[in-house]
Each structure stands twice: as C-alpha cells, then as structure tokens.
Batch of 3 targets.
Target 1
Amino acid sequence: MHLLVVEDDPRLGRLLVRMLGDERHVVELAASGHEALEIAEAGSGIEAMILDIGLPDLPGTEVARRLRARGSRLPILMLTARDAVEDDRVRGLDAGADDYLVKPFAFQELSARLRALDRRATNQAWEGAVLRNGPIALDEVRRLVTVDEAQVELSPREFSLLECLLRHPGQVLSRD
Ligand code: CA
C-alpha cells in the first residue's frame, strides 16, 4: 500500500518508515498535522494514513476531522498514548478514524491492522462500483459490461454469473 505516516517523534517516524518499507509498502512521512493534510490532499495516491494523536500543530483527531469534512474516505489508523487511552480512542473514532492502536505497540499488530483496513477499503470500493479484472469491467449500477472498453451484451443470468465471478477472483465457486 501507499502509506502516509504522521508522527512528530523523528525516531519513531523513521522506524515506522523503515519497517513498513521492509514489508513493501511505499511510505511517506509527515511530522505535523498541516503537512499531513497537504500530502493527503495532493492527489498523492495515499491509500491509508497512520496518524499520531499528539502532534505539534493540530491534534491527530483534528486532522481526521478535517479530512472527513472534506469528503475524504482515506482509511485512518490512529496512534494514541497509553495514558489517555479511553478518551483519545473515543475522540479518535468520533473524528473519523477507522481504527486505533495504543503506544507502545508491537509492529506485527500495526501490520495486521493495516491489512484489515486494506480489506475493508477494498470491500467498500466494491459497493455499487465497477468490478474489474484484466480487460473486463462490469458496472453494477448501469448494468454494463465492457471488454477492452467495447460493450458486450449479456443476458441477465450471464451478467449475474460474471458479477459473482468478478467478486471472487481466483476462487473456485460452487455451481449454485
Ligand atoms: Ca507525537
């Protein structure tokens, strides 16, 4: 994934960039809330944000709130300090974070939660959207199928069958 880490502690920031990079993520680092908002908005292709609550300019909760107010659906994993857990957790989720992690955390847990966010985002993108696989695109709302951009006529049963297969790429499905 293309990730944005927002962390003002330079040591932790560098560590996260290195460890996430080792897992083949593309990682950018922002050290303040304003920088994070700038990067996240620049059409940068960021797919998820790891957002520390304690930042020098804006709290992480405010960064999340502003992103959501602007219509962003970027998955956000909030990092909270251990001493303010309950409060920060609730405020973070209220502000639009998708998940949170309490510092200090095991890197494996961060990694697992990112995978969960990624899965959720993928599932959401399917809702009423265009399913694609190679040259095939199926628009569920307009009920159109194209192959290499050329429209293909399908019967309703064929359409449903293709829709089912595209929703489960690489899987063997029962006849039913
Ligand atoms: Ca911090």
Note: The pocket of calcium ion is lined by residues 8-9, 52, 54-55 (CB under 6 Å).
Target 2
Amino acid sequence: MIIAIDGPAGAGKSTVARALAKQLGYTYLDSGAMYRSVALVALRAGREPVQVAPQLTIDLGDRILVDGDDVTDEIRSPEVSEAASQAAADKDVRAAMVAEQRRLLSSGNWVAEGRDIGTVVAPDAELKIFLTADPRERARRRARDLGADAGTVLAEQTLRDERDRGREHSPLKPARGAVVVDTTSMSLEDVVRAVSDLL
Ligand code: C5P
C-alpha cells in the first residue's frame, strides 16, 4: 500500500505524512530529504549535484545519514532549501532519486511525500493527496517551525514554488486522481482525520 502526499512547501506534508505513518504503522518516506542531501553534499564539495547524486548512500531513518554522516539539521537551512530546489530541476538528479524511491517503495506499506510521488514515482499509489494552503499561511507555519521571519520565508518560498511548478521535468502539480486538500484553516488533527477517512 502506498499513500502519496504531494504539495508545495509548508502545506503540512511532512507533519501529516509522519503522523499518518505512525497511526497506520507504515513507513514514512521523505523524498525532499533526498534532494536536500544531494544539494548539501554538492555545496560542501563545490561540485554539481548531478556529479554527486548517483554515488550517495542516503539513509532515511529518524536521522538522515549521508554516507554515514548525520545531516538531519544541516539539510533544513534556507541555503540548502534553495540549492535543493535548483538540484531538483535537473533530470539526471531526478532519475537517480526516483530510481531509489521506487526501489524503496517496491515492498511494504508507505506514506511517501514530495512533489512528484503521485505523478511520477508511484502513479499507481492507492491514495494520492495534493496538500496545499494559502501561501501566507504556509510561510507563517514554516517561519514558526524554523524560528525565522515570515516575510523572508514567504519570499524564499515564492521563488521555490515557482521553480518547482515551472520546471520542465516533473513539475509540481496534482496527480491524476489526486484529492486536493486545502489545509489553510485546518489543524493537523483535522488533516490527518480527513486523509484517514479518504483511505
Ligand atoms: O519537501 P522539501 O521542502 O524538503 O523539498 C526540498 C526541495 O526538493 C523542493 O523544493 C523540491 O524542489 C525538491 N523535491 C522534488 N521532488 C520531491 C521532493 C522534493 O523536486 N519528490
């Protein structure tokens, strides 16, 4: 069983996917953490993401390990968010990540979240959700989580949203058959209940 949850930054994908996976006893797949890991390693090494992507071993447990190195906190920085969105526009980087995601999803029960899970990685997922929310509300949530200024987060988020939606390869959009859930005025509990009901 695969539940695919896609949507823009700050819509609540990670929180909802994590909570749902816990409730159902499924495994959570944070595909964004993979793009972030590639971007971080490329930044550190001064290399192109496409050069490092195929060689990395990314371990997506409670902590994110890249070739054994714990990068859990570092991959959440604004600099890595921006670099991840740039790296994710490269079709060869995507091919490497999608192959690994499909390998993981080939057995077991999963709640997988990202931008292209329902459209590309697992179009046959039993349930596809497109989570969205008003951009200001999304920025407010992310600013609260990061302890950052909401205006700055909104500006960065707008850039990243535009790049993710406008890119040539696997642009962010609701998958065929996806249920669109607008979380602007919903609590986490409301959203988890809504998705459980759909399931
Ligand atoms: O979800 P998160 O904000 O961690 O993702 C970071 C970036 O990785 C996104 O802005 C997007 O460009 C990219 N991404 C993607 N496809 C996914 C997951 C993330 O392109 N499935």
Note: The pocket of cytidine-5'-monophosphate is lined by residues 9, 31-32, 35-36, 84-85, 88, 114-117, 160, 164 (CB under 6 Å).
Target 3
Amino acid sequence: MIKVRVELRENSYEIRIGQGLLPHVGLWLKKKGFSGKTVIITDSNVRPLYAAALERGLADAGFKVTVFEIPAGEEQKTLTTAGQLYQLLAEAFAERTTLIIALGGGVVGDLAGFVAATYMRGVPLVQVPTSLLAMVDSSFGGKTAIDYGSLKNMVGAFYQPKLVVADVDTLKTLPKIELANGMGEVIKHAVIRDKGFFNFLRKNMAGAMAYDTKTLKKIVEKNARIKAPVVATDEKESGLRTLLNYGHTVGHAVEALSDFQIKHGQAVAIGMMAAAKLAQRLGFLAEKKVKQMEELILAAGLPVNLPDLDQIEKETLLELIKHDKKVRDGKIRFVLIKAIGNAFISDKITPELIGEVLFDGKHT
Ligand code: GLY
C-alpha cells in the first residue's frame, strides 16, 4: 500500500492507495480512535458493488453502520438532496462524533463532504473514492460543494477528510467514459506541474485506458504526489492552488451549459485545449507542445473542441465564464502554461479572447 500525506498541521491526513483495501477501512478508523455510529453515503451504482465489503469491515471493527443511498448522477449535487441527507442523519440520531464515509465518485464525495461540513457544524469525514476522477482529485484537498442553479460547485466549504482510501480495484467496474472523465484531471496535473509525468502519460495512456491496474495505481499515486503539496501550501486557494483550475474556467461553464451532458473531464479537456491555444497565441507555448497535448487528450478518449450542442451559445457561455469563482475585481484569473509543467495566472485573458479560440469556425 502507498501512503501520501496531505500536510495541514492538525488537519493533516493520509491518502492510502492500493488494492483490496475496502475491508480494512474499519480497522484503520478504529486505530485512529473512531468508534460508535458511522454513516456511509453512497449512490445506486456503487452501493451494490462495494458497500458490503466496506460495511463488513466496519461492523467487524465494532462500528454501528447505516447506509444512505442517493440516485447516481450530477443532478443530485443540490441543496434538496443535501436537505434529505440532513433529515436522514437526524432520524438516525447522528451525533457530532458520527463518522460520514463518502463511498463513490465525485458527486457522492462533494455532496457527502458538504453535508459532513455543515451537519451540526461539522462531523468527521472519510473519503473512499471509487472513480478515477475522485481518486485523483475531488476526494482530497477539502473542497466540498453542491451546484446552485446552473453554477457548478457554487455553494460549498473547505472541509478536510480524516482519511482517504483509494482502492484501485474499484476502477475495474468503472465505465470507460468515466475513466476518461478522470483522465482529464490527470492530464491537467501533468500539464501544470510535471513534464516527466506528462511524458509517462504519453507512453502509458493506452495501457491505462485498457484498465491496466499497475498503470492506474501509478497514475493515482503520482496525482496525489502532485496535488497534495499544492493543497498543503495553499489550502484555501489564495495563490498556488489556483493553478489546479487549469482548464476549469471554460470547463465549468461548458459543463453547466450542456446541462451536464458533457462530463466534467470532457469539459476540462476542452478548457485545457482552449487555454493551450491562448498560450500559443500569446507566444508562450510552442505549436508542437499544443499538438502533444491534443494527442494525449484524444488518446484518453476526451474531446479537444466544443461539440455542436444547440444550447451552447457563445454569449451565454461567456456570461457564465464571468461568474467564475476566480474572478477578482471583474478580472478573470485565467490559468495559462508557459511550458508543459509550468503554469501561471494571467489577468490578461478576456471573455472575448476565450470566445475566439473556442468558437473558431463554429456558428453560434
Ligand atoms: N480540483 C481543484 C482543487 O482541488 O483545488
């Protein structure tokens, strides 16, 4: 088993990465001093596959386990579902010490994290990600959120988990489109921080997309090692952490505007390519590197251009971009790259410039 630590003083925790880990979570939590009630929040896809192994281990370690299941899908990341979970927690007499365990992908992790952060002003949270997206990004770092209207992740809290357990065996049942979805964040981490990892991905993307467990484990580990120190340096995103939003200014807007028909990783891939083209236009990035990025994104089964969806209109998209959480004093803090592995923040990028590269040759 691999352990990567997220150093946040008294809120530090480990990400444990390996195979066959689910049955051990109960004992690990007991050893960390937890006991009593625990609530697993999961969804209708993940529950039948993985809840039993986790539940058994928790029960063997002496926990009293309750499982709350939500329907699978991004539509659940709402205040309404959060409200239903508060209600269930109250009915189960959940206390301040009741552990919430998020078992699932990004939606379950973000939503259960938000509920854990707010129920009784915060109950302990453990993340057990079962999708690549959650393993490489959303399960650690402490961002919890729900969507609000068409604005993605607009309401939330920074709330760190006590432990993250990434059992890569769970990736075997992940649909290919979801593997690709997680790969968007993987490529992002490489592009902004690690040229060597970018080259590793160029060599190994085919193996990863064929579910080679060894390659996937390496990818999950490498991502944790890239993101953990960024979070440790800038937990609340006042500087360095902003770089993790590479591709997301455009990505969040595209995702929301498509009514979530376009998945997060796909939207981020489109956003990353738009940012790369902007960097090329401004003379930062060589055409060859833009091409390499494009090839890698395509090898992961992700799009490099905006699809022709009726609901994606230029003006509305650019309006949404102006609502991005990174806008300060009316200026977009846009993440660009100077080279593969070297990202920076620019306030020179206007919605109009973004529109030009995104809608290049498209009718709106
Ligand atoms: N997903 C970006 C971050 O955790 O900051």
Note: The longest helix spans residues 213-233.
